[in-house]
Design goal:
Layout lengths: L1 H30 L15 H28 L17 E11 L2 H14 L3 E9 L8 E10 L3 H7 L5 E11 L1 H27 L3 H33 E10 L11 H29 L1 H29 L1
Parallel strand pairs: 1-5
Antiparallel strand pairs: 1-4, 2-3, 3-5
């Protein structure tokens, strides 16, 4: 009986020791997760070549990470928000719309074109129209001119030479933030382009080379678009747009006088002149269409003679 109890105690002690060793092993595994397993397979014969390939991949990832860091430091992509403008002159787009009346229609238009060219500008578009065959002397023209922004005020003052200014509208648009944002995106894309070119020189795998080329094509396309947008903004900033309407008149109206009686007298005189011009227009129309009127009068006279003869014949036959 005692032997049976002793063997049972020994068995329990052995089980307790085994459980203790197992718990210690679990704690050591948790506290040292990077412990090398003795059962790890032996490296293959191409171990050095595999390690060189892994090092190449790590190097390429490092290059890409540096390129992305340079992109972020240069301003980030276009959708990351507008960049703050640099200190200096602001980028302003100035547009002017004006209308004038002049008696020297042809000479005025040639003078305005010459002044725009002398200031370093040019004529973007031009159109001249007349009211009709009977009023060839009354014409109007529409000009779109590009003038350097620094010379805009001098050109506006020149519009009143040999003409009366009837309308002048100015608009100014600040594009400093947009201009700065486009510049920052261009620098970021240029950095990414240079990094991709460097990766293409060191790339060995065909799949990696194709992916780099695809990304490089996208970057170049976007870079060309942004550079074109920047050139367009620069052109609009450097050269202001002036839209000019020129009306030919026979008489330039004087400025409106001050005071009730002066305005009434001026209006009365203008009414008499309007009546006189109306009479002149009617007489001119009659004289201009006199051949047609004479032809119509002759046709009416012939018809009247024919009707009168027919009536006479009827009366003679009844008698």
């Amino acid at each position: 009986m005692r032997k049976h109890i002793r063997s049972t105690v020994i068995l329990l002690l052995a089980l307790a020791l085994l459980c203790g060793f197992a718990a210690c092993g679990v704690r050591m595994e948790k506290s040292h997760p990077n412990t090398i397993d003795l059962a790890m397979p032996v490296p293959s014969a191409n171990y050095e070549a595999d390690m060189e390939e892994v090092g190449y991949v790590v190097e390429q990832n490092a290059v890409l990470q540096r390129a992305l860091a340079d992109v972020e430091s240069a301003g980030g992509p276009a959708d990351s928000g507008p960049a703050e403008p640099k200190t200096g002159a602001r980028k302003l787009i100035k547009d002017v719309s004006a209308a004038v009346e002049t008696k020297q229609f042809d000479s005025y238009i040639e003078t305005i074109k010459a002044k725009a060219a002398a200031m370093g500008g040019h004529v973007q578009s031009s159109s001249i129209n007349g009211y009709g065959y009977g009023d060839e002397s009354l014409r109007w023209a529409s000009l779109v001119l590009r003038v350097p922004a620094a010379q805009l005020e001098a050109f506006q003052a020149a519009l009143e030479d040999e003409a009366r200014l009837t309308r002048m509208n100015e608009s100014i648009r600040d594009v400093t933030m947009e201009y700065t944002d486009v510049e920052a995106n261009i620098r970021a894309l240029q950095t990414e382009r240079d990094a991709l070119l460097g990766m293409m020189e060191r790339s060995g795998a065909l799949e990696d080379l194709i992916r780099v080329q695809e990304r490089l094509s996208e970057v170049r396309y976007r870079l060309d678009s942004l550079e074109s947008q920047l050139r367009q903004l620069g052109d609009l900033v450097d050269l202001s747009t002036v839209t000019l309407d020129v009306q030919e008149v026979q008489r330039i109206a004087p400025p409106r006088p001050d005071g009730f009686w002066k305005r009434a007298g001026s209006t009365f005189v203008e009414s008499l002149r309007s009546i006189g011009r109306g009479i002149q227009d009617i007489l001119g129309w009659l004289l201009g269409y006199l051949p047609y009127l004479l032809l119509a009068a002759a046709a009416v006279a012939v018809c009247a003679l024919l009707v009168r003869r027919r009536r006479r014949k009827r009366r003679a036959s009844k008698a």
